[in-house]
Amino acid sequence: MRKLFFFIFFIFFTSILFSQNKIALKGLIIDQENFPIPYAGVGIINKNIGTTSTEEGTFYFVITNKEVKDTLEISSMGYITFKIRVADFLSQKSTKIVLKEKTTELSEISLMTTEEYIKNALKNLKKNSVSKNHQLKILYRRWSVEDNICRFYIEHFMNVIDKGPSSYMTRYSIQESRKSSEYRFIKNLQNRHAIEYMEMNNPLRKGVYLNDYKWQKIKNSSYDGEDVLVVEGSENEKNNIKLYIGYDSYKIYRFEIIKNQPKVGDSLKAIYIYKKNKKGKLYLSYHTREWESTAKLPKNIKTLLVQKNKNIGDYIPMAFRHEVFVLELEEDKKSFETFKILEKMDMTLYKVPYNANFWEGISLPPETKFYKKNIAELESLYSVPISTQFKYSN
């Protein structure tokens, strides 16, 4: 009986210690005009712990008691980096963080040409990035859209071994998975995991050829104390790429893509955000993209939709919407988790048991405007909350 008492006490005491050791850091990042600041790098840089703020400027991540004496840093394009001791931030009544705008005044005479800056940025890409094998813990979200409304959602928690934007991922594994109810007319499947398309659509990985674009300077900005040049390249009137390049370091902190293929009817919009590790090297922090196209309806589906009084042709609009959060960076190879090579197929075809306890316990980032929009479309179909869909569809 005495042994049982001590065993129960030990379990209870351990659980208390564990709960006390987890501390949530959350807040809202705004400018001096009270507008939210999206895509800010938030974290404890010397520990490689942190996240990226949402479109609404909110952030959330978890630390332990070991990080309370460390410094929380907030960096965003065009603003002065904000620093505060974690303990001081936790003791504040308000969780709002106000960033001050940084005025950039550069002499045009002393600058190189736009093309020279881009050339140097591409030349130094490997040097400026975490280019050795590193492990990323990634939250990958994909929404399937048909007839201009979201009809299916799948979410993977993944481990990825990457070598940075100057190279390619070497392997990945799916740790956890959950999905919504199935409301699609047709099931458009990708021939590999969507994370590979994230990689394939990244022009830094494929190689940016200067002569393929007409370049122009858009504006000056700043990031984490460094002046930044924002340039845009136009491949034609439809395809554009925008780069955010450090004047001194040539680091590419962010880039955006807009591609349209009128003959095919496809379009792609994407954003890639990078942030610094403790050594100042860049790694992927956040990504979002939307690919739009059309799909031919099978005759039986078309007949069914016509019977439901839907005015529809042979093709319907379809799209994939993606959102990616990097939740953790690990550079010590000894701490990498075991990976197995996965067969290339659509996200929905991997057999991963649903673990409700995992999804209830994980520290998810705040819901973005992009996330809320897609989930609202999905829930509106039959008024079924996403939590209920998760419960009965997995």
What's the short story on this structure?
With 394 residues, the chain is α+β, with helices and mostly antiparallel strands.
| Strand order in the largest sheet | 10-9-8-17-16-15-14-13-12-11
DSSP strand tally: 17
- How large, in whole angstroms, is the Cα Rg? 23 Å
What is the share of helical residues? 10-25%
Counted by DSSP, the helix tally is 10
> Based on helices, strands and strand pairing, what is the structural class?
alpha+beta
Largest sheet, strands/sense/barrel: 10 strands, antiparallel
Strand content: 35-45%
Any chance you could write out the topology, listing elements then pairs?
Elements: H1 2-21, E1 23-30, E2 41-44, E3 49-52, E4 58-63, E5 71-75, E6 82-85, H2 86-91, E7 96-98, H3 114-123, H4 125-128, E8 134-146, E9 149-162, E10 171-179, H5 194-200, H6 203-206, E11 214-223, E12 226-234, E13 240-246, E14 252-261, E15 266-276, E16 282-296, H7 299-307, E17 315-330, H8 356-361, H9 369-380, H10 386-393
Parallel strand pairs: 1-7
Antiparallel strand pairs: 1-4, 2-3, 2-5, 5-6, 8-9, 8-17, 9-10, 11-12, 12-13, 13-14, 14-15, 15-16, 16-17
Describe the fold and architecture.
The chain is globular and about 65 Å long. The chain has helices spanning 2-21, 86-91, 114-123, 125-128, 194-200, 203-206, 299-307, 356-361, 369-380, 386-393, and strands at residues 23-30, 41-44, 49-52, 58-63, 71-75, 82-85, 96-98, 134-146, 149-162, 171-179, 214-223, 226-234, 240-246, 252-261, 266-276, 282-296, 315-330. The model is unreliable at 3-19 (pLDDT under 50). The chain is built from ten helices and 17 strands. The two termini are 42 Å apart. The strands form three sheets. A ten-stranded antiparallel sheet has the order 10-9-8-17-16-15-14-13-12-11, sandwiched between helices. A four-stranded antiparallel sheet has the order 3-2-5-6. Strands 4-1-7 form a three-stranded mixed sheet. The chain has 394 residues and is of the alpha+beta class. Strand 14 (252-261) and strand 15 form a beta hairpin.
